[in-house]
Amino acid sequence: MGKIKTLGYVRLSRKEESSWSVKNQVKEIKQYNSAAVIYVDDGVSGKDNLVSGDGAWSDLWKEFLKEPQNSEIVVCHLDRLGRRKGKILSMSEDVFDFGGSILDLSSNMRYDSSDDFSKQVGFTFSALMSDAYRQEIARKSKIAQDSLKDAGLFFGPVPKLSKKDCDEIRDLHNRGLGLRSIGKVVRTKNSKGVWVNTGPAVVRKVLDGVYVPREAFLAHNAAVRAGLRGVR
């Protein structure tokens, strides 16, 4: 047997959190083996990554088949392999049948034989639980979010304009200033602490009476949350 070739697989869908960032996954695999060849499916859903003919997984698979008995497929967590349980298990059988292995860095478990009952059960269980856990979290998150919406909670970032800013915008408009000119007078700080003009669209919302000032936004959400605590 020759030197083992490490093929790292990284996947990040469009909806996932930054903790699963491509950078973090690549870093973890490189820490395991700095010589690893890494294939990245960025912005790819786990529903079709294993069956797509033009994605990173397809390229990895072609490389794997060149020397399967001297190759290992490494992932940060088994759920990076995808979300379709049947496809994951079918793929794993192919890997094992060709003499290769799959390494899950999160559990430090290596899977290399479908005949090894305990490892195969572990692989199957981990794949099933990863998918079930994600679906359960998504379900609970949606229920919680829907409940908060029904209670009237405002979502989104806290508005930058205060009541005083809004009053000034209306006053400047009454004096004849245009939207852009008003935005140059009434300015706010961005996330980096730099002063920026207020956009014309925001100024228009204030003038149309649909913009919620910062104080009102915070007071409203505090009252909603207090009411929810009282219900409990």
Automatic annotation (TrEMBL):
Is DNA-binding among this UniProt entry's keywords? yes
- Gene Ontology molecular function terms on file: DNA binding; DNA strand exchange activity
Q: Could you confirm whether the keyword Transferase appears in this record?
A: no
Query: Which SUPFAM superfamilies is this protein grouped with?
Result: Resolvase-like (SSF53041)
Gene3D superfamilies from the UniProt entry: Resolvase, N-terminal catalytic domain
Q: Where is the Resolvase/invertase-type recombinase catalytic domain?
A: 6-154
From the Swiss-Prot or TrEMBL record, give the protein name: Resolvase/invertase-type recombinase catalytic domain-containing protein
Task: Keywords in alphabetical order, please.
Answer: DNA recombination, DNA-binding
Q: Which residues, if any, are the signal sequence?
A: none
Which Pfam families does this one have? Resolvase
**Record-linked InterPro entries:** Resolv_N, Resolvase-like_N_sf, SSR_resolvase
